[in-house]
Amino acid sequence: MDPLSVAVDEVALEGLDGITIPTLWIRLEDRQPKFPLKLDDCTRELIWKSLIINTDLKFYQLPQEREDVVLYDRFKDIDPETGIETALTFSDIRKDVYPIHIILENKDGIQGSCAFFKQRTDITKQVRSKSLTPLVNLQEALERYGRKLVVVASQMLRFRTLIGIESDPDLKLNDDSYCVLERVGRARWQGELQRDLHGSSFKIDARKLHYMRKSLVKHGLISMQSHATRIKSGQQQHSILLLLKRFHVNRRTKYDILMEYVSNILQQLPGQFATLITLRDQLNVDEGTFKRVLQYMRNAKLVEFRQYPLEDLDPSAGPATNKKGNKVLVRCLKMLKPYTKKGVTDDDDDDDEDEEDGTGARRRGPPAEGRIMETDVLSQAYHIVLSCGTKGIPQSGVGFRMNVGKLESRMLCRRLERDGVIKRRRFMIRVKENKKVWRRLGQSVVMKKWMQQVKAWVEREVKREESQEQNDRRQGGKSSVRAKQTQPEIPIEQTTPAEGETPACSKSTTPNSESDPKTEQARVEEEKESNASAATPLPQSEAETTTNNPPDNNIVVVKDVLQPKARKDEKSRKSLARSHETYRLLRRKNLIVEAVRSLKIIEGLFPLQKIINDEEKQDGFSSKCCRKTILRLVHGLSKEGLLKIYKTTVIQDGITKKVEMVVHPSIQPNDDIVNRVLDQIRFRISALTLL
């Protein structure tokens, strides 16, 4: 590269902020390889004229002067033999003369970071004529503008300089990722630590910076290598050093160097083993570093620990037996295979692109099979799960084999689970890592026909249970009452199946759906039954009687939620579940029953939760009762007939509010006390609308 092209390259590397003339001389003096010309006055005037006539460069005047850049060498205090930083003094935090201010969605396609992008003034016409001749020389420009004068390269020139000649010039990067690339390019050979980028420069979360950097690594624009710095406390802090590909230098870490040193020592010794004390004395490192080196070598299966009797190693040493009469054993390190240097790899530990396939092996190459465009994706996903048999397949494995992303594979698996043809199981395969394994549920390949059979079976069961409930009602069984208050010309709002109905009442198409919420005993039974086969839905009996519809301004549907009756073959199971009731559980039930008896009607579950928590706090319990626990207890007591649950929807001034009431068994939906509670709710809604 000729000297004038080198000057233009330095201007482009400085980014959208541009470069001042004094900073340009500093960059050229520190250029690697060395700038071929001597930077005297004549050379500087020549470089100035070459910048003037270059149409890819523009000149701007900043609203204030910019300080000169301060160069530093982050590798000067690192021992090349051990890779350990030996700095004893720590300088103050360097002032950043290029604060981050990302230019977002510019209409002219300009990308980068510039603090004075809108405030600076274009003075190109004042220093360059239309015929590309300089209007002012270097001395006049410095006297007139000083450090307010900056030279800025065009967007295309800056982008080509950053990505290099080997990358695609039509590549598109988002604004955030481009700013990271620009920042890394401005650092030249020194690079940027990822810790400094998210902590000092961009001041964002490390997870967000990871995704900003991810596209740069994917397209091969930057390289990454591990870097350790020593902080003021004396400890070493590890981070990732980012560099442009053109500035990448394969610097070995201290552990890489120490591992090679230990391997060389063991190769020279007879038997290729040595005591740990001897190795540590030769390495001359602290205990933590020594243990980590041995751990890395052991994980790489380069060495193994062995124990040898002291008398075999050194007969002239101290006592060879301990107090118990056993031989004194010495820990030694035995070499299994010599250390070999690794190639340069991207040290991206937290990149979620490296997933595991169904066999648990890492995958980096192209997928083994793709999508069949003539077949819908649901059928392909189902047949992939079907081909794995009872073993199942991870969700990531489905996406890998279909060549789709993680979100799309999750959507496909959830859709198949909703259709009832596969089921999910979670298990731990590694520390702090969950895997979802999807297994086939249906035994028939024709899913549509199987689903129609299930739907018909559910409808038959619903009709049978409804007829049985009508017979029970004629015999004097308990029935629920639905009181309806409707306004003329306003349709009655129906309650959704989620408000206490089981799938049998909501005409569910799958026998695996569960009613929400269930009692604690029913949940235990459900888990036991799901291991053998798909659970059979329990029908919910619901008797409704309609009262006259008096004119009112609101829609109120009061619904008595009854729990499904237990079958005869489940009585033994419930007796076993009841035997596991603890004192604390019975205490909570008693508090709920006493509260309902004294207050007769309670709006919502929070008052019951507060009563239980206050009582248990006085008894010395530190844990609190959650809302789901209250819900299970209330439904269990409702099933035993100790209380009732009324659910209603109140509409007042266009605002819809779902209300849940826990009442005494003697309270009916059309009683005055229920109407008073509903009137209070309407009043509160009206008061909120007036605020």
UniProtKB/TrEMBL annotation:
Residue ranges of every copy of the GTF3C1 extended winged-helix domain listed in the record: 580-686
Region (Disordered) residue spans: 343-371, 461-554
Name of a matching Pfam family: WHD_GTF3C1_N
Compositional bias (Basic and acidic residues): 461-475, 515-530
Compartment list: Nucleus
Molecular-function GO terms, alphabetical: DNA binding
Record's keyword annotation contains Nucleotidyltransferase: no
Gene Ontology cellular-component terms listed: nucleus; transcription factor TFIIIC complex
The entry's keywords: DNA-binding, Nucleus, Phosphoprotein, Transcription
Transmembrane spans: none
Primary localization: nucleus
Residue stretches of biased makeup (Polar residues): 482-497, 505-514, 531-552
GO terms, biological process: 5S class rRNA transcription by RNA polymerase III; transcription initiation at RNA polymerase III promoter
Segments forming domain B-block binding subunit of TFIIIC: 175-249
General transcription factor 3C polypeptide 1 winged-helix domain span: 2-61
Regions of compositional bias (Acidic residues) in chain numbering: 346-358
PANTHER family in the record: GENERAL TRANSCRIPTION FACTOR 3C POLYPEPTIDE 1
Name of the featured protein: General transcription factor 3C polypeptide 1
Organism: Larimichthys crocea
